[in-house]
Write a structure and sequence with these properties.
The protein is of the alpha+beta class and 230 residues long. The chain folds into two domains: 8-91, Ubiquitin-like (UB roll) (Roll); 132-229, no CATH class. Helices cover 32% and strands 10% of the residues. It contains six helices and five strands. The chain has helices at residues 25-32, 87-102, 118-125, 182-194, 199-209, 213-229; strands at 8-12, 15-19, 57-60, 67-70, 80-83. The chain has a five-stranded mixed sheet with strand order 2-1-5-3-4, sandwiched between helices. Helix 5 runs antiparallel to helix 6. The chain is elongated, with a radius of gyration of 22 Å. The N and C termini lie far apart (79 Å).
């Protein structure tokens, strides 16, 4: 058997897979449809991928002998045991994403990838409120509720599914709970002003739909920004 024909057996999250000797863990995961987050990886670059984003971290080994490696930089080895979704990996990815997003420009509405942003989906998967949540809404451009002059909590909440609302029969306006992030609230207020939406009406909706501590923080900040206008 030539080197090209040789197959390497590995175990990923308890299941057996076979890959080529020159394949990385990430390449095999992509090939087999295994969900492994990655941002900086580009298949065109091949061995020149740097692994800088570190979102594709995996745990290798078993028991107390496990080690952490970037899957895009690690070649397959015979009988390698790979864990893509352990608690330790989840916490590491979350911390890395928090650090990344703390320096990431929040201008989702003007971004060409708005609506199809890997950061948005990662923040959702890792339970982070570090991106402008309105970018999750499929109602972009002229279809946007704000563009049409309708009050929507999209810029402040986990919203945008465009689902049927069981409360009043309309489509979703963002009652799934607010996200407190000072920059995010500032972004939302600018959007409301730009579209002529009365901030008091927004505050009334937040009061109606929010019961958490984060909801109170958002209402307090909105009240403060509204008073600053007067």
């Amino acid at each position: 058997m030539t080197m090209i024909d040789k197959k390497i057996r590995v175990v990923i999250d308890g299941k057996e897979y076979f890959g080529a000797p020159d394949q990385t863990i990430l390449e095999l995961c992509i090939q087999k449809g295994i969900d492994l987050p990655h941002i900086c990886y580009n298949p065109v670059l091949g061995k020149r991928n740097t692994g800088n984003c570190r979102m594709c971290l995996v745990e290798l080994g078993e028991g107390n002998a496990k080690i952490i490696k970037e899957s895009c930089q690690t070649l397959l080895r015979e009988n390698m045991v790979i864990h893509t979704s352990s608690r330790k990996i989840y916490d590491l990815r979350r911390t890395i994403l928090q650090l990344t997003m703390s320096q990431h420009e929040q201008s989702c509405r003007d971004c060409p990838t708005s609506g199809d942003c890997p950061y948005v989906s990662l923040c959702k998967d890792l339970d982070l409120s570090a991106t402008v949540v309105c970018a999750m809404c499929p109602l972009q451009g002229e279809s946007c509720n704000l563009y049409r002059g309708n009050i929507c909590l999209g810029p402040l909440t986990y919203s945008g599914c465009n689902a049927y609302c069981t409360r009043n029969g309309s489509t979703c306006i963002g009652c799934r709970g607010v996200v407190f992030h000072k920059d995010l609230v500032g972004f939302a207020v600018k959007e409301y002003k730009k579209h002529g939406i009365n901030l008091q009406h927004v505050i009334d909706l937040v009061k109606l739909f929010s019961y958490s501590e984060e909801g109170k923080k958002v209402m307090d900040l909105l009240e403060e920004l509204k008073e600053g206008e007067q």
